[in-house]
């Protein structure tokens, strides 16, 4: 019987990367809508400016490297990086803050290592951490839900005027972190940063990103291992160290799951196939490590939210995780992790 001679690559469609990136952008729509409804047009301004900056930096570096612009820009990877970064930044971020974050993400987080598929760190999280460390004041003040008008927001973006007093507030994670005397119940009753279960308005945003993530999971763009590992580890850590409603409490599992960038990180960041682990067991360990580090940073670290730092730290550990979780090769009894001299 003659067998068909089919050569690689065995790809479906003209551009698999482009299709995947478009699906990711589509999955971000619920989160964008939630952020826009709750915080005004600031998120849309972030998205438009970050996208323009990302495409500009990408085109400039590609031109310097002598690579074809159209081919690489059409894979939409730079656009996905810009969107994820813009969604993580506070709405109405100053224009220069978004420019620095996006430029660092594209140039130093992606192109410096050779482009898509060769970056050891998640580019969006690398750009986010740079501006978080450099400009903590601008990065930790979010507008109060449904308080900032478009005119005042634009004036703030371009540095013409600051937002009026009372229109910005600390996040629930930040309030809980610096609390020393009030119980959790008192914080919930007195501070506007707290919502029903998590941060005010941010809990709805997290549910929106959860919906987008489940859509990607349904489309089988990634497996369940990394997001489930992260969310389960974060919930378990917060449950183990939960001190009820005392003044030294670090928050309940539900609070941590619905605050900060938890769902954005679980479904859109730790599932990055380039900077994360590759085997199913490795993805589970990678996600669990991110979840543990997120809680450690939130509870005892110097920053209220720790998703970006946790992801970058686990990016460093991804090669080691891959080495020790390599699946068994067909025909071998156990995983092959290299050969000794003479074998």
From TrEMBL:
<keyword id="KW-0597">Phosphoprotein</keyword>
<feature type="transmembrane region" description="Helical">
    <location>
        <begin position="197"/>
        <end position="217"/>
    </location>
</feature>
<keyword id="KW-0288">FMN</keyword>
<keyword id="KW-0813">Transport</keyword>
<comment type="similarity">
    <text>Belongs to the NqrB/RnfD family.</text>
</comment>
<feature type="transmembrane region" description="Helical">
    <location>
        <begin position="281"/>
        <end position="300"/>
    </location>
</feature>
<feature type="modified residue" description="FMN phosphoryl threonine">
    <location>
        <position position="171"/>
    </location>
</feature>
<feature type="transmembrane region" description="Helical">
    <location>
        <begin position="20"/>
        <end position="39"/>
    </location>
</feature>
<keyword id="KW-0812">Transmembrane</keyword>
<protein>
    <recommendedName>
        <fullName>Ion-translocating oxidoreductase complex subunit D</fullName>
        <ecNumber>7.-.-.-</ecNumber>
    </recommendedName>
</protein>
<feature type="transmembrane region" description="Helical">
    <location>
        <begin position="254"/>
        <end position="274"/>
    </location>
</feature>
<comment type="subunit">
    <text>The complex is composed of six subunits: RnfA, RnfB, RnfC, RnfD, RnfE and RnfG.</text>
</comment>
<keyword id="KW-1278">Translocase</keyword>
<dbReference type="InterPro" id="IPR004338">
    <property type="entry name" value="NqrB/RnfD"/>
</dbReference>
<feature type="transmembrane region" description="Helical">
    <location>
        <begin position="306"/>
        <end position="324"/>
    </location>
</feature>
<feature type="transmembrane region" description="Helical">
    <location>
        <begin position="224"/>
        <end position="242"/>
    </location>
</feature>
<keyword id="KW-0997">Cell inner membrane</keyword>
<keyword id="KW-0285">Flavoprotein</keyword>
<dbReference type="InterPro" id="IPR011303">
    <property type="entry name" value="RnfD_bac"/>
</dbReference>
<keyword id="KW-1133">Transmembrane helix</keyword>
<keyword id="KW-0472">Membrane</keyword>
<keyword id="KW-0249">Electron transport</keyword>
<dbReference type="Pfam" id="PF03116">
    <property type="entry name" value="NQR2_RnfD_RnfE"/>
</dbReference>
<keyword id="KW-1003">Cell membrane</keyword>
<comment type="function">
    <text>Part of a membrane-bound complex that couples electron transfer with translocation of ions across the membrane.</text>
</comment>
<feature type="transmembrane region" description="Helical">
    <location>
        <begin position="71"/>
        <end position="89"/>
    </location>
</feature>
<feature type="transmembrane region" description="Helical">
    <location>
        <begin position="45"/>
        <end position="64"/>
    </location>
</feature>
